[in-house]
Amino acid sequence: MKAITMMAANFLRQRRWPVLLLFAWILATAALAGNFGRGRPAEADIVFHAQHQAIYICIFSAFLAADALHTERKSRRILLLLAKAVSRAEYLLAVLAGTVVLAAAYALLSALCSIWLSARTMLPSAGIWQLLPMVVAAAMVAASLAVFLSTFLNPYFATACTLAIFGAPTLLHAQRHAGWVWLPGFPFLVQFLRFSFRAEWSPNWMSVLAAVVESALFWLLATAIFERRDIAVPVE
Q: Is residue 235 part of a domain?
């Protein structure tokens, strides 16, 4: 556990500047949605901001996790890590832990901005606190799926495939079928797009349970593949 924590902390440290820029972008988009504090923002703009940020957090998490293996192999740092009695399963788990921590911080800042915006329009903010764990769960399954795919795909293609898996069931109207909450990521996409500050929106907590199970499964599959990869081979 100590090794995983240290690797996850190092993962966060190495990506601090891009993350800080993204945090600044969150604040800038919230200020834009709130008309920079002038007047009363439109409810539609606030809802769009919350939906947009929830989806973007998943994209950010998928890309961050997918790029981790490629970057570490290209810099050869991964050889040093695995030479210190760290298993490949622990290494992948550290990547996922670091990504989820960043996503949680991102989601929390986005939630606080949405609460500020909702307060300015006298909208109830209870839905934001219900949305927050949904966003973190969606980011977790996005990161784990991206890590799994990145063990045998280019990180950009792995990210694209992750997003395609999230969105493809929309074309088939999969939410009409039993068991749709077990499709990776798709239930969160549906709930994000349906989000509103009104009482008629309520989260499907079964999708959070499904995300935890799916994330563990993708981690195990990623480990099984990564154990068989020759990481000494340089990547371009």
A: no
Please check whether residue 99 lies inside any domain of the structure: yes
In a 10 Å sphere around its CB, with 0-12 CB exposed, 13-18 middle and 19+ buried, how is residue 236 labelled?
A: exposed
CB 91 within 8 A of CB 4: no
| 183 occurs within a structural domain | yes
Asked whether the predicted pLDDT for residue 193 surpasses 60, the reply is: yes
Cα 198 to its chain centre, rounded Å, is 25
Give the per-residue pLDDT at 148: 95
Dmax of the chain from CA atoms?
59
By the 8 A CB rule, do 63 and 97 touch? no
Phi and psi angles of residue 167, each rounded to the nearest 5 degrees, phi first: -100, -20
Q: Is the alpha carbon torsion for 187, 189, 193, 195 positive or negative?
A: positive
pLDDT tens digits, one per residue of 64-100? 999 888 777 676 666 666 666 678 888 889 899 999 9
Q: 77, 114, 119, 122: which is closest to 95 by C-alpha? A: 77
84 assigned to some structural domain: yes
CA dist list (Å): 185 to 57, 69, 137? 12, 22, 9
Query: Where in the sequence is the domain holding 164, given as residue range(s)?
Result: 2-226
Whether the model pTM is above 0.85: yes
9-29 CB burial, b ≥16 within 10 A, e <16: eebbeebeeeeeebeeebeeb
User: Which pLDDT band, with edges at 50, 70 and 90, does 230 fall under?
Assistant: low
Q: How many domains does the chain have?
A: 1
Can you give the pLDDT at residue 202?
Answer: 86
